[in-house]
Specification:
Elements lengths: L1 E4 L5 E5 L2 E5 L11 H8 L4 E3 L5 H4 L2 H8 L2 E5 H9 L3 E6 L4 E4 L2 E7 L5 E4 L2 E4 L4 E7 L2 E5 L8 H9 L3 E5 L8 H11 L4 E5 L12 H5 L5 E2 L7 E3 L1
Parallel strand pairs: 3-4, 4-5, 5-6, 12-13, 13-14, 14-15
Antiparallel strand pairs: 1-2, 1-16, 2-3, 7-8, 8-11, 9-10, 11-12
């Protein structure tokens, strides 16, 4: 398995027979060059979205259409993107599990908001979400954009993820200290990968606080386009 950060909240996850682009933000992403974006999409098989905000969905319909990549997300968001020309994947909902090749993907709650600009106005795009991905004998919890929430208790207890991809930049989501608290209280991670940070000055720039708060956990500060092998 390889987890590759594409900057901000975007990832390329190579797992089982799939190459999943999670919240791919290419156009306007200050951490990802055009050449890197082209490399990131090469060989991809599926797009998975946590919510509708621009820094997670810009150009997704175009990326999907041009590369033949099905898009899976909560029902309202998936339906909107399909209407915009995206390849239809799974429009599912909270607690549902779908299979993408050999990978099982379960939608779990997040605490944030979700909308897109449509004809100059904000349109609700269904509830924000996180995901549990299961494959290669491992379980990943991708939090999506969220604050600390009580739902993390049952997510950790029921799904038992060993790997956490956690938003931790603060301002729009939980910060590094909050992510450390949530990881320690609700989960038993072997590995934690922070995201949704370093993109803009108002976000946290280092994961030192996260690492300090999780002794014994492998906290990996990702580097853009550098594969993390797990």
């Amino acid at each position: 398995m390889h987890i590759i950060w594409l900057g901000h909240g975007s990832f390329r996850i190579e797992i089982e027979d799939q190459v999943i682009l999670l919240d791919p933000w290419f156009s306007g992403n200050p951490m990802l060059s055009d050449d890197q974006a082209a490399q990131a999409v090469r060989g991809a098989t599926h797009i998975l979205l946590t919510h509708g905000h621009f820094d997670h969905t810009t150009d997704v319909a175009e990326i999907s259409r041009e590369n033949g990549l099905p898009v899976s997300a909560i029902y309202e968001l998936a339906a909107h993107l399909t209407s915009q020309g995206a390849v239809e994947g799974n429009g599912f909902n909270m607690g549902g599990t779908v299979y993408v090749g050999e990978v099982a993907i379960t939608m779990v709650p997040a605490s944030h908001s979700s909308s897109m600009q449509v004809d100059g106005r904000g349109v609700y795009m269904g509830q924000e979400a996180g995901f549990i991905l299961k494959g290669e004998g491992k379980v990943i919890y991708a939090s999506g954009d969220t604050g600390i929430m009580a739902d993390m208790e049952w997510i950790g207890h029921y799904h038992k993820p060993q790997i956490g991809i956690l938003c931790a930049g603060g301002y729009f989501t939980m910060d590094m200290a909050g992510a450390a608290y949530a990881a320690k209280r609700y989960f038993d991670f072997d590995t934690v990968i922070p995201c949704h940070y370093r993109t803009f000055p108002l976000l946290e720039q280092s994961a030192e606080v996260l690492a300090a708060g999780l002794p014994g956990v492998n906290v990996i500060e990702p580097q853009v386009m550098e594969a993390i092998a797990l």
